[in-house]
Design a protein that fits this description.
It is globular and about 70 Å long. It has two domains: 96 residues, Urease, subunit C, domain 1; 271 residues, Metal-dependent hydrolases (TIM Barrel, Alpha-Beta Barrel), CATH 3.20.20. It is built from 13 helices and 18 strands. Strands 3-2-1-4-16-17-18 form a seven-stranded mixed β-sheet. It has a four-stranded parallel β-sheet with strand order 10-13-14-15. Strand 2 and strand 3 form a beta hairpin. Helix 11 crosses helix 12. The relative contact order is 0.17. The structure holds zinc ion. The site of zinc ion (ZN) has 5 residues, from loops.
Length: 436
Amino acid sequence: MRPSFVLYATLAVATTASAQAPPLRPAPPAAPVLIKAGRLIDGRSDAPQSGVGILIEGDRIKAVGPLAQVQGQARGARVIDLSQMTVLPGFIDAHTHLLLQGDPTAESYNEQLLYESTPYRAILAARNARIALEHGFTAIRDLETEGAMYADVDVRRAVDRGEIPGPRIFAATRAMAPTGMYPIVSDNWELELPHGVQPVDGVEGARLAVRQQVAHGADWIKYYSDRRYYFGPAPDSVLHSWVNFTDDEARALVDEAHRLGRKVAAHAIGSDGIAAALRAGVNTIEHGDGMTDSLLEVLVAKGVYWVPTVTVAYYVAGPRGGPWGPMVEHQRRAFTRGVKKGVRIVLGTDVGGFPWTELNQAKEFEYYVQYGMTPMQAIKSGTSLAAELLGQRDLGVVAAGAYADLVAVPGDPLKDVAELSRVRFVMKGGVTYLSP
Ligand SMILES: [Zn+2]
């Protein structure tokens, strides 16, 4: 039940094909565009504004302000009337997997790596990119291809060249774990099975792997800090894990990435894995179910972002069983304490861990409000704060100079955050992809 998808509906480019056919390579309209916004949540301000004009030239926002004022600068502009809607910056999901179609169990994961070719998976990834955009996500950080090598870089290129609709993609390529510490691992030693990551061992191996991934187009480096999650015996309520890399390996990996101008995301679920990743100097902690008060304080002190991926935690808890259910509850309590401590929590869903076709990524906003954020805090977590994590000042905000990445929803998301799952208008870089 997805809204109808209006490809490039506003494009004013002549085409030799029929008048209805969308142009194959969209470009921002030549004439300026004036958006009339009934209500604007700009991603940075603490309060919404009413009766706002947003003037767009090319792929950027030229002016934002009271409608009457902006209208004066907008002579000849084409008008998009969103006066009955709430306009927001395009959403940003800081943790996605374009190349994965849900992996609640080992079987569902292995099925994809063993029986689907990388070209087939890339075709699904292109479809997923379009779904993300339809849901209002105009930028994503795609945190590894799960065995599909560098196919995320190809999807990014196709989007950037206008060959397919999709969000801005910040790609991590293959991710890393030491030999034998990430699927697929089989008892049959005669078979060489596909690896869900690039196997990496030793300090020099870590530096080489970072260089290889950057050479092939990685915007970010991701590694798996831990595995095998378990709660200690009572009264120990700490979520523990087995740490993958030695401290020397993890430090080399982070240092090499930073030397090459790339930031590092660490999958870290148990407290031991989180602590190891923080010792290594990573920029973001992914999942972080096992956060303790002292770890939360290290996050604040070091300015490390936490990307909790709550939607996937609920999705896999049932099928996986074991500690996965209690881990959700542990994370909920840690999240609430993290909000109070001022931890920079950035919205990430791990979509791909759940099927792109089943759940709207924007569900994540609802969990954050249930867990203790205000709706405005949740919105910033998935817009301006996510842009800060990405180091992209021109994303995640509706302001003069920023990219014209905008969405609109019919109601007021500050009253009902679920409204963010009902996106009716999407613009990216001045091109309209979905119209009410
Ligand atoms: Zn993930």
